[in-house]
Each structure stands twice: as C-alpha cells, then as structure tokens.
Task: structure prediction
Amino acid sequence: MSKYAVGRRVEWDVRKELEAHPLTEYVVRSAGSKGVADLVAFVRGSVLFIQCKVRGLPSLREREDLIKKAYVCGAWPVVAYRDKGLRYVWLPDGDAHTLNGLLAML
Result:
C-alpha cells in the first residue's frame, strides 16, 4: 500500500469515527489537501480543524500553522493519528485523547 493510500485510510477512519458520534453534525474531507486541515468537523456547535497523520504529531512548523489558522477561523486545532486505535491531540494541551475524551473538552 502506498504512503498516500495509508494516509487516506487514516483520514477515512477518522471521518467514519466522527460521523458515528452522536454529537457530530457534519464532517468534510479535503481531498488531496495541501492546506492545514485534512478534515473539518462541526461538533456540538464547535468547528474542528483536523490534520491526520499516520504516526504521531506533525512538525513544529505544521503544528504552529494549524494552530494559527484554526484560531483565525475560530476553530479548534486537532491532530488525529493511529496508535492502537485512533488518538486525538488538541494542540494547545498536547495530550492524546480518545474521541470521547476530546469531545468532552468542547
């Protein structure tokens, strides 16, 4: 499987998990995204800019860019990655959470 296919699979898995959650209103995938967010989710009246990674966090520069652009739009900057299941990191606190743990913070 190519790196692109593996990354796309993570995006699809994150989207599927978000869409299955009762608090999620809408999830949009930015196909072939070259911007800061791979997914934009509308959850419980909040907007999440989500960058998906196969493993761990993006570079410091990518994280700073995601935080800056998310805050300009009034969104929450989040990184999702796979580590024994999907994990979500709200960038300002840097802690990994399950989806329920992340959404409880909203």
Remarks:
- The chain has a mean pLDDT of 87.
